[in-house]
Specification:
The protein has 348 residues and is an alpha/beta fold. 43% of the residues lie in helices and 16% in strands. It has helices at 4-17, 34-37, 48-51, 54-63, 75-78, 88-100, 117-120, 124-141, 167-172, 176-188, 205-220, 242-251, 277-295, 316-320, 337-345, and strands at residues 42-46, 66-69, 103-111, 146-153, 193-198, 227-230, 233-235, 257-265, 302-307. Bound molecules: ligand 9MR. The site of ligand 9MR has 9 residues, from loops.
Length: 348
């Protein structure tokens, strides 16, 4: 769960958001905006307090066309210990998106890692009712504003041997908790695109196969599954061609795809530390391969390509190892050469 210190930061940042303004892209010395270079939505993971900062808000509004709340639309933020729901930060993110013409993408309704106390304490019927209330309330609140949702996040076991056990599967059934989540989300917002999202799909072909079989089973059961999310958290030792193979295979069901959380770690590679020029060259190549694989999909299958944070210092990877530089913008929110690499791979 989130340490209280970070939660505490949000309230003061949100107060700032009320008088927020954004800097024009030209004032930041930015190249062609990324969102103009891509013929599909380009997303970024954000936190409300970042958007309240004029510099960061300006870069986000000028470069991107879609927002994913990095953690403030998860149960860890929304569900209070007494079961009350709070929406201050996600509302601020949604409001920023409306004001600046960016799409909002909801992340994430049901995730094995998030098991709030308020749910653990509920017994049988009340658990199911609480589940329905949660999904209905959250999706319903952003009805007409969120273009889509990660309905179930990371359901597949790493070795591809079935699905993960979690509070939701134990109380509602291993398949039923997922099917039901899609049904409830559809009832709360008939227009939102509802996705199944998972990670390591380019590293682990067996996991990918199980993920696709799960998607097929959901469709067969009548679940309103509208797209597949492949998180694309990479390290620079990923073999060339692996992303392309994954994207092609995931596209084989014909559903829209979301590269939903892309970053490329320099330091998580399994070999020796890759902070040198060779690691950076591999990082550029992986970003280029992902952009190229995505743009060569049929247009109707390009839901969006989302980067998991703006600045390197914002990244979850930097909290693990501050030497990492996984994103497209440096610690001062200046575009790195990687941004031009991505734009070149998109054909601009
Ligand atoms: O980057 C997110 C980090 O700030 C949060 O503390 C964490 C828990 O909410 O989630 C991180 O994002 C994860 C995403 O929601 C699901 N895929 C893996 C991401 C990185 O851990």
């Amino acid at each position: 769960m989130r340490p209280p210190t970070r939660r505490g930061l949000v309230a003061s940042a949100l107060a700032l958001a009320a008088c927020q303004r954004v800097e024009p892209a030209s004032a930041l010395g930015l190249p062609v905006p990324l969102k103009s270079a891509a013929p599909f939505p380009v997303g970024v993971a954000v936190q409300a307090e970042q958007l309240a900062d004029p510099l960061l808000g300006g870069v986000v509004a000028s470069q991107f066309s879609q927002l994913t709340p990095e953690w403030q639309m998860k149960m860890e933020y929304i569900v209070e210990d007494n079961g009350a729901l709070r929406f201050t930060a996600p509302d601020a993110i949604a409001e920023f998106g409306s004001r600046h013409g960016l799409r909002l993408f909801g992340h994430t309704l049901v995730w094995h890692e998030q098991q709030p106390k308020a749910f653990v304490d509920l017994d049988g019927t009340r658990f199911r009712q609480g589940y329905a209330n949660y999904i209905g309330s959250v999706v319903g609140r952003y009805r007409g504003r969120a273009v889509g949702w990660d309905v179930v996040n990371e359901p597949v076991a790493e070795d591809g041997d079935g699905w993960r056990d979690c509070l939701w599967s134990e109380r509602l059934g291993a398949f039923e908790y997922m099917r039901l989540a899609f049904e409830l989300a559809r009832a709360a917002d008939p227009a939102a695109v509802l996705l199944l999202n998972d990670y390591n799909l380019e590293y682990l072909p067996a996991k990918r196969t199980t993920f696709l079989k799960l998607a097929e089973a959901l469709l067969k059961a009548g679940a309103p599954l509208g797209g597949l999310g492949t998180q694309t958290h990479l390290a620079v030792d990923l073999q060339p061609g692996a992303i392309t193979a994954a994207i092609r295979e995931l596209a084989s069901l014909g559903l829209p795809l979301h590269i939903s959380e892309m970053d490329v770690s320099l330091v998580r590679a399994k070999g020796p530390a890759e902070l040198g020029e060779e690691g950076r060259a591999r990082q550029r190549a992986l970003y280029a391969e992902a952009a190229h694989a995505f743009i060569t999909l049929p247009p109707a299958q390009r839901f969006a390509m989302t980067f998991w944070g703006l600045r390197d210092r914002d990244s979850w990877l930097d909290r693990i190892d501050a030497a990492d530089e996984p994103l497209l913008f440096d610690d001062s929110a200046r575009p790195k050469p990687l941004l031009a690499t991505v734009e070149a791979a998109l054909g601009t």
